[in-house]
Amino acid sequence: MKTILVTGGSNGIGKAISIHLLNLGHNVIIADIDETAGKQIIDVYPKQGLFICADLRKPQTAAEIFSQIDQHRLNVDAIINNAGKGLTRNLAELTEDDIEDAYGLLLRAPLLISKEWIKRRTPSLTGYGRIINIASTRAIMSEPNGEVYAMCKGGLVSLTHALANSLQPYNVQVNCISPGWIVTGDIRLSEADKLQHPSNRTGYPKDIVQAVDYLLLDDNVFINGQNMIIDGGMTKKMIYVD
């Protein structure tokens, strides 16, 4: 069994990933700002789980997370950089704080988390190692007022292939998953919502969990630096206005 760090693992897609990995018997470290939700998960798996309350918008947080991991004498085998939050803001009303918070959480944090982890590994013949970055189809398509989110998710896709090359001496595979429309709450979907997808439905966290499973396989070492788009085909559908 592996020890896996999941950022933003208390809610949504991250929660589904965390619980799935715990159910498989892995040790899971959840780093999230939502302490109540995170501890509720860990309380069910006290021997396998560790919760670290973390505000990943702050640049010092990555080092603080790994300091706590070191105190528990844990060696991380894989990282799921999942922490994120959507941002829609009229461009004229966009503030510097909006930009800084989104950049810190969505792009800087995955970089610094990866940095702190690799500082604790030795080059060559290290063995198993994985980084999975959770990006978004907003890296390649947009709606109005999504500049900052698209910018950061696009940067995360680029960071993925950059890390894959830099971490070659450490035998670490780095890949990215870009979810499309993933339903994580209790919302009513219309038939039109479903039919926007060639797969005839929206996505669910289990669709992303299955991709994470695949990328975490021990012998899955030839997929590296890639961005897996999981969107029911929505980004491949041409839409014309009548």
Give an overview in words.
- By secondary structure, the chain is α/β, with parallel strands linked by helices.
- The protein has a single domain (3-236), classed as NAD(P)-binding Rossmann-like Domain (Rossmann fold, 3-Layer(aba) Sandwich).
- It is built from seven helices and seven strands; from the N terminus they run βαβαβαβαβαβααβ.
- It has helices at 12-23, 35-44, 61-71, 96-118, 147-166, 191-195, 205-216, and strands spanning 3-7, 27-32, 49-53, 78-81, 130-134, 173-179, 227-230.
Sheet having the most strands: 7 strands, parallel
Q: C-alpha Rg, in Å?
A: 18 Å
**Chain-averaged pLDDT:** 94
Count of β-strands: 7
Class derived from helix and strand content: alpha/beta
CATH fold-level assignment:
Rossmann fold
**Number of helices, counting only DSSP H or I runs of 4 residues or more:** 7
- Extract low-pLDDT stretches: none
Please identify, by name, the CATH architecture.
3-Layer(aba) Sandwich
Elements, N to C (H/E): EHEHEHEHEHEHHE
In total, the number of domains comes to 1
**CATH superfamily, please?**
NAD(P)-binding Rossmann-like Domain
Order of strands across the widest beta sheet? 3-2-1-4-5-6-7
Broad shape = globular
Strand content: 5-15%
Percent of residues in helices: 25-40%
- Spatial separation of the terminal alpha carbons: 54 Å
- CATH top level is Alpha Beta
